[in-house]
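Hi support team,

I submitted a single chain yesterday and got back a structure, but I'm not sure I'm reading the token output correctly. Could someone confirm the output below corresponds to the sequence I sent? I've pasted both exactly as they appear in my results page.

Thanks,
R.
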Amino acid sequence: MFIDDGDDITVGNPTIDGAKVVATCLAERKGDKVVVFKYKPKVRYQRKTGHRQLYTRLEIKEILRPGEKPSEKVKAKPKAKPKAEAKAEEKPSRPRRKKAATGGKD
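Hi R., thanks for writing in. Yes, this is the structure output for that exact sequence:
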């Protein structure tokens, strides 16, 4: 890690002990699909699977030297209400209908 403030330069090997990075999560999304195809000739073996890697997009607000406090403009916003409290404030949903009994036969 390397921190440069004009006059003062701090170099880590490979990190600077006590340095912090203040960041905000902007989005979480999936990357492009990767197709994995396994094939063995002469034995009729074919398997096709896929994978999508999850990515998090961050915005770096500030890089702090050891012992520094985050500036006032970068302080975290207050957290939103938990879901249980948010649902209690919403209007009540209508009751769900029960499924008809089939007696175990379809």
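A quick pointer for reading it: DSSP finds one helix and four strands in the chain. Let us know if anything else looks off.

Best,
Support desk
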